[in-house]
Specification:
Layout: H1 22-37, H2 40-56, H3 58-73, H4 76-82, H5 93-122, E1 126-131, E2 138-141, E3 147-150, E4 155-160, E5 165-171, E6 173-177, E7 186-190, E8 193-197, E9 201-207, E10 210-217, E11 219-224, E12 239-242, E13 245-250, E14 253-254, E15 258-259, E16 272-279, H6 280-290, E17 298-300, H7 305-309, E18 312-318, H8 322-332, E19 335-340, E20 343-348
Parallel strand pairs: 5-7, 17-20
Antiparallel strand pairs: 1-4, 2-3, 3-6, 4-5, 6-9, 7-8, 8-11, 9-10, 10-13, 11-12, 13-14, 13-15, 16-18, 19-20
Helix pairs in contact: 1-2, 1-3, 1-5, 2-3, 3-5
């Protein structure tokens, strides 16, 4: 007579007896990963999706049980508790050895599945390095529909993960039109601080001594680098900007928010440079980023550097007309413009 497994009414069949596929286990692992590593909203959504998926069939429910077991067993302590060395039974050494190998096989499979799931969750889903040269403006649409536009002379590394979007800006400036995604906040990191958003339109610009952030739409949180050299994004932001506000972070700290015209944020994308009480050296540096030809570059007279640093420039100028800017500059500030070796040199008025 052949033996046949029977199930007591009201009991759940063994997860392994139902034989879920690896694909089903992998799907369950991906949902479990979201419950562990997403933010609160994403984790709750993943938990609901997992519960619904479990309820669709006994096999999927079994796959989720196995996936949960694999995930838990990537913790070394949990694995040690489950994979105990079996005691030797006199007269049955082979049975003991087989039992130990079976346990170790299950544990090894758990490490493989759980470890792969965690590594997969932590791996980037999209990476991109973008760079522009002098006089070059580069728009780029990202996989989520967000649009980043690089100002001239800009370097940025973009990395998308399953639970966040990261930009590492090492030089230049960005205009970002961010698609909202509460499960994947977007951040921009620089040497002077960090910016974090969910969905908004804003700019970040690096200069020699600081970082400028301006918001055209939405809200942006800004953290300045602290005296210990770190950016503490685990704490409350130093300032939260709304539309029509801008702020500057410097090595010594962060300034007070200033009012700006939302339409002026990122106006360089449309061929305009907008300055609002901008230090003259900073304005000249921005002009030079937009001028591709060396002969068009502007510089300040070395002997007058201290005097020129104290001047502030306000106005809106077309990028296509640097000559017009230079011609009108002496009417706005106490300076004079002369030519040396084909370049414009700006000197203090004496």
């Amino acid at each position: 007579m052949s033996a046949r497994a029977t199930q007591t009414p009201g009991t759940k069949p063994s997860s392994r007896a139902l034989k879920p596929t690896r694909g089903q286990i992998a799907h369950a692992l991906s949902l479990i990963g979201r419950t562990q590593h997403g933010d609160a909203d994403d984790a709750a959504a993943a938990a609901r999706a997992l519960a619904d998926w479990r309820a669709e069939s006994p096999v999927q429910d079994a796959a989720a049980d196995i996936a949960q077991s694999y995930w838990a067993q990537t913790d070394g302590a949990a694995l040690r508790e489950r994979v105990a060395v079996p005691k030797r039974v006199d007269g049955t050494p082979r049975q003991a050895r087989r039992q130990m190998l079976t346990w170790l096989g299950v544990g090894g499979l758990a490490i493989v599945f759980g470890g792969v799931a965690r590594r997969q969750w932590l791996q980037p889903t999209h990476t991109l390095a973008l760079r522009t040269g002098k006089g070059e403006v580069l728009p780029h649409t990202l996989p989520d529909g967000s649009v980043v536009t690089l100002a001239p002379h800009t370097d940025v590394q973009i990395t998308y993960y399953r639970n966040r979007r990261e930009f590492q800006l090492s030089r230049g400036g960005l205009h970002l039109d961010v698609q909202p995604d509460t499960s994947r906040p977007l951040s921009v990191a620089t040497q002077f601080g960090n910016v974090r958003v969910l969905g908004t339109v804003f700019t970040v610009a690096l200069r020699d001594d600081g970082m400028d952030v301006a918001v055209a739409h939405g809200r942006v949180a800004v953290w300045a680098r602290s005296p210990d050299g770190r950016v503490h994004v685990d704490r409350d932001p130093d300032v939260t900007l709304a539309a029509g506000q801008a702020v500057t972070t410097l090595p010594q700290g962060i300034g007070a928010p200033q009012a700006v015209t939302p339409r002026s944020v990122g106006a360089w994308r449309e061929g305009w440079l907008v300055f609002q009480a901008t230090p003259l050296p900073q304005a000249i540096a921005q002009w030079n980023d937009f001028l591709a030809q060396p002969a068009q570059q502007m510089r300040m007279a070395d002997a007058d550097a201290a005097a020129l640093r104290g001047l502030r420039l306000t106005g809106t100028f077309p990028v296509s007309d640097p000559a017009g800017f230079l011609q009108g500059l002496p009417t706005m500030l106490p300076v004079r413009v002369r030519r040396e070796n084909g370049q414009a040199v700006i000197a203090a008025l004496r």
